[in-house]
Write a structure and sequence with these properties.
HlyD family efflux transporter periplasmic adaptor subunit; four-stranded antiparallel sheet; 22 strands; Beta-barrel_RND_2; MdtA-like_BSH; OB fold (Dihydrolipoamide Acetyltransferase, E2P); Elongation Factor Tu (Ef-tu), domain 3; conserved putative lor/sdh protein from methanococcus maripaludis s2 fold; six-stranded antiparallel β-barrel; elongated; alpha+beta
Amino acid sequence: MRKIILAVIGFVLIAASVLLAIMLIANKNKPKPFKEKIVKTVFTDTVVNGTVQITIPSNGSLVAKRRVELYSEVQGVFKMGTKLFKPGQQFRKGETLIRMDASEYYASVQSSKSNLYNAIAAIMPDLRLDFPDVYSKWQDYLNSFDIKKTAPVLPEMDSDKENYFISGRGIVSNYYNVKNMEQRLSKYTILAPFTGILTDALVTEGSLIRNGQKLGEFIDPSVYEMEVAVSKSYAHLLKIGEQVVLTSLDKTETYKGFVSRVNGSVDPTTQTITAYIEVKDEKLKEGLYLEANLSAKQEKDAIEINRNLLLDTQQIFVVRDSILDVIDVKPVYFSESKVVVKQVPNGTIILKKMVPGAYAGMLVRPFVNKNNDQESAN
């Protein structure tokens, strides 16, 4: 019985070994699975060289081209005028902005005029005797002298004798002293230098104004300037008179301006050059923040592409017979998202959008818009 059991176990082991050998042989001869190549679809564009307008983006806030900071050169009490001295108040050219009480100083000026008149009148008898030829013109001067008006210009001296005589009596020094006081008297009234609007008022009617005190700011709201900083590498592209399009931050308003001035020096800290853009519009206000695109130069025989299409090696991808390749290009201008390049032959098929993991020799399939093909065929 024992021999029968051992014979059965041996038969089973032999059968199992044979089956395992057959399975191993079958798996060895089985062909390897075919790995299908992945062909990526890419967006392409055909190069047509042309003239590319290079624009330099910048931004800044508006400042009135004509603005005046008002300061007092004399001391006095601010008197009430026909218009309130308040921010937003408009004044026409020549209207009184500020008028200070000058009654005390006015009396001093009148006293000096009187002294000048008396000094000339005192020498008239001597002029009649010693200088009869010039007596009449000095008499005419006295007749035209009005103490309520500014002192008239002294008669012209015809000879050295007359000059020595008049100067020796202190007439000339008295005259210039009067003119000096008249000039100072005029500073008690500040007139509007141009038609504009008051943007800042630091004093009120009835307050005491001191010498050197700032009174406010006055601007012309019809013309504004925007100061922009441009990299020194683009300085040679800026041209005075070049048209500039200005837009608001929310892109809802557009204004037209032009480059009015370009600074001749480079800021040593930022290595930028300041350009000034002049703009006129009734909607504009001082301090408004705008964006500007400066039309700097027109680059011929060039194309504009996305910056991510330009490789670090100054090359771009092209498609040749469904295979990616690279060619050398010459970048001439970089903006925030675009780059202008040259030396790309017309008719070259380039990538329109960058392909992740792209490399030279990569198999690709250009994207074809079937809807456009059907429309063109119809």
